[in-house]
Specification:
Structural class: alpha+beta
Oligomer: single chain
Helix content: 40-55%
Shape: flat
Strand content: 15-25%
Length: 629
């Protein structure tokens, strides 16, 4: 604690600077302005949406890559299950928002803790996440990464009522009297003032209890011991070995998020407030000086000619249209030595660029001091520079994000029960037993531009237009990517998988064939699976050609009309397919022309026609491979 006292002082300064602003050290006169230029707070608020969107704008939070090839289908179920558990059945979204805010405000490194609450959801249990204030996490001296440390401590601040509700803690009244805050603790720590810090080792509030939950790496895993610094000789909770594992290795419940990668050391990363603190201090000073100047310049001051008679100022009436006495004239205040507004804008620009979120409303001054907006080329370069910086920060954050998903999946496997359920398109799905293991490589399902929705949607739309209908491209993945770029929820609401869509269309076409056989001229509609429907129609024509000829004139006329309607319907689908997918229609038309050039496009509506002869090999002889058979 003593070695990090300077770091704690700086972090308290960053907190004060962001929220309330640093007060003016010395005012030049009574009633002088004490303004706060919120550069740090603006930078934090502008960066927060980038981090949040980079996590929660995806179709799924994590991607599961099975380490065994035969587990591919089960991995998709596991990814969907984890996504549901984190988004809908835990406080992960709220905790991540708090992590981002703390990371940007404080030292640039924040810890996220997860645990399993067995009493939640009607005793079904759920994952619970907690964003840890950096001041409440005490690492090993000289430590860098949590997973490489041998011990660390989490400082917990509880009210007396919260402590008494948690039955896992020692409820001995004598111990409670020793560890609760107030004057007794204050006297106890006076002798050790150098090592004592209010809120970490003791509390001035007699309704607050400070606990240290320490983790130590041992041969069996991680040993957890909980005690109060006011009574370190008596355990508040029984010491135990945390039996959590990931792929056979001991696991502890903390994950660190950091904003930059630089020097080694737990306190090395810098937050956004620390980066822009000097610029905010300078801009605030200029703003206060501008207010001081306005205090004098905006008030009416007067002077008199030296030869004028003495005038009693109380006799001068100020008002609209009043005439000043002879010899009295308004005093002209001199202009400031330089343009304070321009200087403030320069400080603001430097701060925004340092935080890598440029302020597109700022202006720059040329050498003649004229205000002029930046050129489009300059804005493009600034925007490109900022985008690269944000993408780098998102990549750094994703390193920790993957750790969260691996640990969350380990807890679900250990405590989630035999039925890990999720919901997709309002249907309940239970995770199959083949997917219940940790033999996965779990990483964030991230994209470099996940924070930039406009650019993501534009690129996805261009890709969708270019590759739609290409047989070499997975069309299901193409459609889901296009929908999720706008809103991941649209995938579950709107998307119908190809297999299910094909089954629905086949059933619909069977009904259309039934009414065509009755002589009703059913219409082909744009957007249908014309290839599948043509295949079903040709199969029906083949079936008709193999049936014995009709015996009566009425039966012959009905059969002729049915064939005519089928040919007309084939022609409609071919025509629509040529309009919607010219490349995909070519092999279909070629196959039909090979059978009967006169019938390739089908008879005109209302015209007669006989049955189209089928090749000896059946429908597949039309080019089944090209048709997707």
């Amino acid at each position: 604690l003593h070695s990090r006292s300077g770091w704690e002082t700086r972090n308290r300064l960053w907190y004060e600077m962001r929220h309330d602003g640093r007060p003016r050290a010395r005012k030049p006169f009574k009633g002088a302005a004490d303004l706060h230029m919120p550069i740090a707070d603006n930078a934090v608020e502008k960066l927060k949406p980038f981090y949040i969107n980079a996590v929660f704008s995806r179709q799924q939070l994590a991607s599961f890559t099975p380490l065994l090839a035969e587990q591919g289908e089960a991995s998709a179920d596991a990814a969907q299950c984890l996504d549901w558990k984190l988004r809908k059945e835990s406080n992960y979204p709220m905790a991540m928002a708090q992590v981002v805010d703390l990371m940007l405000t404080y030292s640039g490194k924040v810890c996220l803790k997860l645990r399993w609450d067995a009493k939640a959801r009607g005793d079904k249990g759920k994952l619970v996440f907690e964003a840890i204030d950096p001041l409440m996490f005490i690492p090993q001296k000289g430590g860098d990464c949590i997973d490489e440390m041998d011990y660390f401590a989490h400082v917990k601040q509880l009210t007396v009522a919260q402590y008494q509700r948690e039955k896992i803690y020692n409820q001995d009244p004598s111990l409670l009297a020793r560890i609760r805050g107030g004057d007794t603790q204050r006297e106890h720590w006076k002798a050790q003032e150098k090592a004592s810090q209010e809120g970490i080792t003791w509390s001035a509030n007699d309704e607050e209890i400070i606990l240290w939950e320490t983790y130590e790496r041992v041969a069996e895993g991680w040993r957890v011991k909980t005690y109060s610094p006011s009574a370190p000789d008596e355990a508040v909770r029984d010491t135990f070995i945390l039996g959590w594992e990931w792929q056979g290795e001991p696991m502890q419940p903390f994950t660190e998020f950091f904003i930059e990668i630089g020097e080694k050391g737990f306190y090395a990363p810098r937050g956004v407030v620390e980066k822009v603190a000097a610029f905010e201090t300078y801009a605030t000073k200029l703003w206060n000086q501008q207010a001081d100047w306005l205090e004098y310049a905006a008030k009416p001051l007067f002077t008199r000619d030296k030869d004028a008679a003495l005038i009693n100022a109380a006799n001068i009436t100020m008002g609209t249209g009043q005439v000043l006495p002879p010899g009295v004239m308004p005093a002209q205040m001199p202009a400031p030595p330089f343009k304070l507004e321009e200087e403030i804008q320069k400080a603001r620009q430097l701060a925004e660029e340092s935080a890598q979120v440029p302020d597109f409303g700022a202006q720059n001054a040329d050498q003649q001091g004229k205000q002029d907006t930046r050129t489009a080329t300059e804005w493009n370069y600034i925007g490109s520079f900022a985008s690269q910086g944000i993408q780098y920060k998102s990549w750094v954050s994703s390193l920790s994000e993957g750790q969260v998903y691996r640990k969350a999946w380990a807890l679900l496997l250990r405590f989630g029960g035999e039925e890990l359920e999720s919901f997709a398109a309002k249907e309940r799905k239970v995770l199959p037993a083949t997917a219940r293991h940790d033999n996965y490589l779990i990483e964030p399902d991230a994209q470099p531009d996940a924070w930039n929705k406009k650019e993501r949607v534009q690129r996805s739309f261009a890709r969708f237009q270019l590759l739609r209908g290409d047989p070499r491209i997975d069309q299901d993945a193409l459609y889901t990517d296009f929908l999720s770029s706008d809103d991941p929820r649209l995938v579950k609401k709107l998307y119908l998988p190809t297999k299910q869509k094909a089954a629905n269309e086949a059933e619909d076409e069977a009904m259309e064939i039934a009414i065509l056989m009755e002589g009703f001229p059913a219409q082909a509609m744009p957007g249908e699976n014309h290839q599948l429907r043509i295949q079903l129609l040709m199969g029906k024509l083949q079936q008709l050609s193999m049936m014995p000829p009709p015996e009566t004139p009425a039966e012959m006329g009905a059969a002729q009309l049915a064939r005519q309607r089928l040919h007309e319907h084939v022609a409609m689908h071919v025509q629509l397919m040529q309009q919607e997918n010219p490349q995909g229609a070519k092999p279909i038309v070629s196959a039909l022309e090979a059978l009967d050039p006169a019938q390739a496009a089908g008879p005109a509506p209302g015209a007669g026609g006989g049955p189209m002869a089928m090749p000896p090999g059946g429908p597949d002889a039309m080019g089944g491979e090209a048709m997707g058979v």
